[in-house]
Amino acid sequence: MPKSDTPFWISKDLTQFTPQEWESLCDGCAKCCLHRFEDEDTQEIHFTNVCCRYLDQSDCSCRDYPNRSINVPDCVTITLEVLADPYWLPESCAYRLLAEGKPLPEWHPLVTGDRDHMVFGGHSVGGRVINEEHADNLEHHIIDWIK
């Protein structure tokens, strides 16, 4: 049977992704590694510029990815169950977009073939955040540059 030229994220349902395909959806922006507040009445999410202590800001990766949920109990592993209501994820998150039936953004590494478009396009938190160990009152760190 000939291999399809249609990318897997278009030709497959989220439930059909291999573990490698699932992990490749993450663009590495690290927006999900930021502390945030939720307005309980409106479910509006307010991001801060304060990141998890395990975020390596040089490449926006977790310093201990395999143990992230052990190290940080609030760290959420993205699963199909989580995607049932992904409102709290950044609007540009590939997991959220696909769960909502939307396409990946044109700068996504799966679309472009490299992370540079995402990084140089300003879609990463790299160089724009502070470690939680150096933050004071989180309410003083709310930002408006994340959607």
Automatic annotation (TrEMBL):
<comment type="similarity">
    <text>Belongs to the UPF0260 family.</text>
</comment>
<dbReference type="InterPro" id="IPR008228">
    <property type="entry name" value="UCP006173"/>
</dbReference>
<dbReference type="InterPro" id="IPR005358">
    <property type="entry name" value="Puta_zinc/iron-chelating_dom"/>
</dbReference>
<dbReference type="Pfam" id="PF03692">
    <property type="entry name" value="CxxCxxCC"/>
</dbReference>
<protein>
    <recommendedName>
        <fullName>UPF0260 protein FHP88_10175</fullName>
    </recommendedName>
</protein>
